[in-house]
Target: 2,5-diamino-6-(ribosylamino)-4(3H)-pyrimidinone 5'-phosphate reductase
Amino acid sequence: MVVHVNAATSVDGKLASRRREQLAISGPADFARVERVRAANDAVMVGVGTVLADDPSLTVDDAELVAEREERGAPPQPTRVVADSTARTPPDARVLDGSAPTVVLVASSAPAERVAAIEDAGATVVSAGAERVDLPAAVDELAARGLVDVMVEGGGELIFSLFEASLVDELSVYVGSTLIGGRDAPTLADGEGFVADYPDLDLVGVERIDDGVLLRYDC
Ligand SMILES: NC(=O)C1=CN([C@@H]2O[C@H](COP(=O)(O)OP(=O)(O)OC[C@H]3O[C@@H](n4cnc5c(N)ncnc54)[C@H](O)[C@@H]3O)[C@@H](O)[C@H]2O)C=CC1
Ligand SMILES: Nc1nc(O)c(N)c(N[C@@H]2O[C@H](COP(=O)(O)O)[C@@H](O)[C@H]2O)n1
Model:
């Protein structure tokens, strides 16, 4: 099982502005790299905050990359995974459009009618945890379903929780040459934040892409 977090930040570590709207920090070459990372993984995971803010598709759109997946016996698309404790994923969200399999991770306390709406939209709902998705249990459940290489695209709340649970194996951060600012703008790792036992990251790659820098870490 390998969990690879990939995200793009401004120089000041923000994932988006305080308006939490999708912002293109990556340039074309980095977005193409992200697409290749998606294609190399069994699953692409986000938190529901990202679904609500960005309405991402999380699919591989490059036909050559889809063909490469099929040649190695993988399904054409990675499975989309949404961490969504209270089942807030809107039934008309793009992650539920049927263009790729989707798993929505919920807590057992999620309202039954919202869970049913997500299932009716075609997703598989997996319950892990009582009030909040229990990420170690959820990751084990994904592995049991053959989803062992998981790319995580954000956002900051989910990324922090994965680090807190020591579940991150690799971190790639594309730092775009821009400044966003704002005390309420989401950062790479939000949540409660660490006050001790800060994760030790091992810098294994530095590469200029477009107008920014890709930093790669083993975790
Ligand atoms: N620049 C980039 O690379 C990216 C930027 N973004 C931006 O990030 C923002 C969204 O990030 P966030 O608001 O932090 O939302 P998020 O995408 O991290 O989702 C957080 C939600 O996930 C659910 N969740 C379920 N189990 C959880 C757990 N164990 N720990 C934490 N969350 C759990 C909760 O409902 C929580 O509210 C948006 O502004 C979006 O545009 C998102 C992805 C990538
Ligand atoms: N790598 C990267 N660079 C940026 O500048 C970004 N804004 C993001 N955001 C992530 O990409 C998702 C968009 O997915 P689709 O193209 O709609 O499939 C978005 O939701 C974030 O997860 N990433």
Notes: The two ends are 14 Å apart (CA to CA). The longest strand covers residues 2-9. The chain has one domain: 2-218.
